[in-house]
Design brief:
The structure is a single chain. The chain is α/β, with parallel strands linked by helices and about 450 residues long. The chain has three domains: about 120 residues, Methylthiotransferase, N-terminal domain (Rossmann fold); about 240 residues, pyruvate-formate lyase- activating enzyme (Alpha-Beta Horseshoe), CATH 3.80.30.20; about 55 residues, OB fold (Dihydrolipoamide Acetyltransferase, E2P), CATH 2.40.50. A six-stranded parallel beta sheet has the order 2-1-3-4-5-6, sandwiched between helices. The chain has a five-stranded mixed barrel with strand order 15-16-17-19-18. Strands 7-10-11 form a three-stranded parallel beta sheet. A hairpin with a 7-residue loop joins strand 15 and strand 16. Helix 12 packs parallel to helix 13. The termini are far apart. The structure holds S-adenosyl-L-homocysteine (SAH), iron/sulfur cluster and FE3-S4 cluster. The site of iron/sulfur cluster has 10 residues, from helix 6.
């Protein structure tokens, strides 16, 4: 028996990894492990890793170097690498970090209990990777166990993998093919989370609006929204990421009409010029994206639209970059997550001869950040005087005398209140001032 053992998980990737870490924790707790906040006290330390760009990979290797010292001080401690970089690097991780005991790709995580049992039998490191074969089993374990007391928001993975082949992206190679979880399994997980105190769930997938596509026409994201809306105690449903090709009128109308579905689309444009979009294999033009954005904004009052964008993709000349900036200035995203292009091994874009020199990529990034910051700040400033429904998350980290939460459209709100609202409560907040990060304001008179 493993009862009495302790574990610690660190997350170095996106929300997918947050959901995977919760799944790993669930499995460990069913084996009798308990979580500890300090890796130095853990019998098992797992890193959930990312490989979408090069930098996070370097960070993981240097973190492994630090964790090695804890391992030396605590005989018997096992150190594991999970997540996307585990899939990409496989055995290579053992070459760089021979003290690592286990390497598990995202599509193999369900095998964690067996892997730990095998590890207990031998001192040899174990590597379990591969993206083919069975999707994660929909196990009916107690999902609520991982949700810490007081947690009000949770991520729920509803799709594994991705069937797009964007020319820069390594995600399909490390997460495998698109596969939807059954709606009942999703609803079951959400119900358990709500029972444990969760008020808001974010449904996750690389192209989340394509949910159900692989399972015939029996269900789709809209029928899932409808099913989840029925769950009593659940206040808010969010969903990400949205590929522009998947956004239909049916979905837009559902987001507009369904009270528990939040008015926010994270819909990455990736580039603001057509030759780049074609080379990226995104499947839409700037004009088509702009038309879609216009439709979303026209039909959903108060909606916010955020985006991801890559700077310095191969073939991006000075003139093309200027066109991109003009596009972003015109489309006015509420916020953009801006990434410097990072060539990923095995992706078609990585071997193109027309790479943009790194210094140019970085210089362009600075201009883009300036532009987007000005737009974001102008948008939040324009919200001053308006009243928002806010889900209270607790005292603000910036200023513990104030409270923090998010509006329906995902804008961060920090506000004053004479009588402290409870975590998880829905309140009305009047925005008084816009900032880059969101709005500050005060609790509205009830
Ligand atoms: N499935 C999501 C994106 C997942 S990856 C979607 O299609 O929208 C998150 C973001 O990382 C991407 O939107 C993209 O902007 C960025 N990204 C992916 N590969 C990259 C690379 N090689 N270099 C820089 N940024 C990259
Ligand atoms: Fe990557 Fe494109 Fe799939 Fe997103 S849609 S995960 S960017 S291949
Ligand atoms: Fe997420 Fe990074 Fe994997 S962005 S899907 S953890 S490669």
């Amino acid at each position: 028996m493993t009862a009495g053992k302790t574990y610690h998980i660190e997350i170095w990737g996106c929300q997918m990894n947050v959901a995977d870490a919760a799944a790993a924790a669930r499995r460990l707790e069913s084996l009798g492990y308990t979580e500890v906040p300090d890796p130095a006290d853990a019998d098992l330390v797992l890193l959930e890793t990312c490989c979408v760009r090069e930098k996070p990979e370097h960070k993981v290797y240097s973190r492994l170097g630090e964790l090695r010292r804890f391992k030396e001080a605590r005989p018997g401690m096992k150190l594991g690498v999970c997540g996307c970089m585990a899939e990409k690097e496989g055995r290579t991780i053992l070459r760089h970090a021979p003290f690592v005991d286990l390497v598990i790709g995202p599509r193999r995580l369900a095998r964690l209990p067996e892997i730990l049992a095998e590890l207990a039998e031998s001192d040899e490191p174990l590597v379990e990777t591969g993206v083919d074969g069975e999707p994660e089993p929909e196990d009916a374990q107690d999902f609520s166990r991982y949700t810490r007391a007081g947690e009000i928001k949770a991520f729920v993975n509803i799709i594994e993998g991705c069937n797009y082949r964007c020319a820069y992206c390594i995600v399909p190679a490390v997460r495998g093919a698109f596969s939807s979880r059954a709606p009942d399994a999703v609803a079951d997980e959400v119900r358990r989370l709500v029972d444990a105190g969760v008020r808001e769930v974010t449904l996750l997938g690389q192209s989340v609006l394509a949910y159900g596509r692989d399972r015939g026409k029996a269900f789709d994201i809209v029928t899932l929204f409808a099913q989840l809306q029925e769950i009593e105690g659940l206040a808010r449903i969010r969903f990400t990421t949205n590929h522009p090709l998947e956004v239909t009128d049916r979905i837009i109308d559902a987001v507009a009409a369904m009270p528990k579905v939040m008015e926010h689309f994270h819909m990455p444009i990736q580039a603001g010029e057509d030759s780049l979009l074609t080379a990226m294999k995104r499947g839409y033009t700037v004009a088509r994206y702009a038309e879609l954005l216009g439709r979303i904004r026209a039909r959903i009052p108060g909606v916010s639209v955020t985006s991801d964008v890559i700077v310095g993709f191969p073939g991006e000349t000075d003139a093309i970059f200027e066109t991109c900036l003009e596009t972003y200035a015109r489309l006015r995203f509420d916020q953009q997550f801006m990434f410097v292009y990072s060539p990923r091994p095995g992706t078609p874009a990585a071997t193109r001869p027309d790479q943009v020199p790194p210094a140019v990529r970085v210089a362009r990034m600075q201009r883009l950040v300036e532009l987007q910051n000005a737009i974001s700040t102008a948008i939040t400033a324009a919200a001053a005087g308006q009243t928002f429904d806010v889900l209270v998350e607790g005292p603000s980290e910036r200023d513990p005398a104030r409270y923090a939460g998010r509006a329906r459209n995902d804008k961060a709100m920090v506000f004053t209140a004479e009588q402290g609202p409870r975590r998880g409560e829905l309140v009305r907040v009047v925005a008084e001032q816009g900032h880059l990060w969101g709005c500050s304001g005060r609790l509205a008179a009830r």
